[in-house]
Amino acid sequence: MMSLVLILLASLFLTTLATFGPTVDADWAGQFPYIAKLETPSDPIDITTPALVVSQKMVVASSELFHSNSPASYTMTDHNLEVHQVARLVWIDDKFVVVKTCKPFGSGRFNLTLSEFFDYQADDPDAAIIFFQADSLKSKSTTVLSDATCDSTFGSGYSGFNTCIAQDTTANICATYYTDSLIVPTFVHKLLLVVQGRVQATLRNASCDASNSNFRQTQFRKIDKFRTNILRIAGIVVDNP
């Protein structure tokens, strides 16, 4: 009898972890004014990625969108849908890129103060992935997993630079937030991970299979682990280093 109870409890816990919330509008202007949208309008695939405003005229983003080194290949808009022309790209560790523009952003900034970042000591259900659909910032709630849990899946030392979220076993789940096809996609949405209301990481691997289902936990790259190199770019400052 006790074994059956334990199995049922374990099943309930796994079910809780394995479910994303519905796709909802994120509060772009209110909660995330430091996010800009980057895209390649000439690309036949609709590829968008959220970027983080880190100074008056600079954003930092995952480098995966940047298949062309030409600034003219990209457009960037803020939460007011004002366009900021991309003037220059500066690569960081082949993982991130700083995008420079001539038109200043508003007052919203992504603060790189170290105390702003999550410590991953325990699983936390106060998490979400955010991404763009057209000109709308979207959100799906999830559970971010502890360093120990991610290491148990991806190997010892994985959490030194990376983190992961709970696997969602819903069929075709990837098409609701990442891409409609790994073979011939019409869209690809790059993701940011939010924990306790604060952006923490960029997408590393969506872990999607050919049927658009998660085959294991979605993986993210921790921003704070590259913080020192990002701050080496002239003009980027933090409130309390």
Mean pLDDT, to the nearest integer, reads: 88
What proportion of the residues form beta strands (DSSP E)? 25-35%
List how many beta strands DSSP finds: 14
Stretches where pLDDT is under 50 for at least 5 consecutive residues are: 1-16
Helix content: 10-25%
Biggest β-sheet description: 7 strands, antiparallel
Using only C-alpha atoms, the radius of gyration works out to 18 Å
Number of helices: 3
Pairing-aware structural class of the strands and helices? mainly beta
Placed side by side, the strands forming the largest sheet appear as 1-9-8-12-13-14-10
User: Outline, from the CA principal axes?
Assistant: globular
Notes on the protein architecture:
12% of the residues lie in helices and 33% in strands. The chain has helices at residues 2-17, 147-154, 227-231, and strands spanning 24-25, 35-39, 46-55, 58-62, 75-77, 86-92, 96-101, 124-133, 136-144, 162-164, 187-189, 192-195, 198-205, 219-222. The strands form two sheets. Strands 1-9-8-12-13-14-10 form a seven-stranded antiparallel beta sheet, with no helix packed on it. Strands 2, 3, 4, 5, 6, 7 and 11 form a seven-stranded mixed beta sheet that branches. The model is unreliable at 1-16 (pLDDT under 50).
Question: What is the compact description of this entry?
Answer:
The chain is mainly beta.
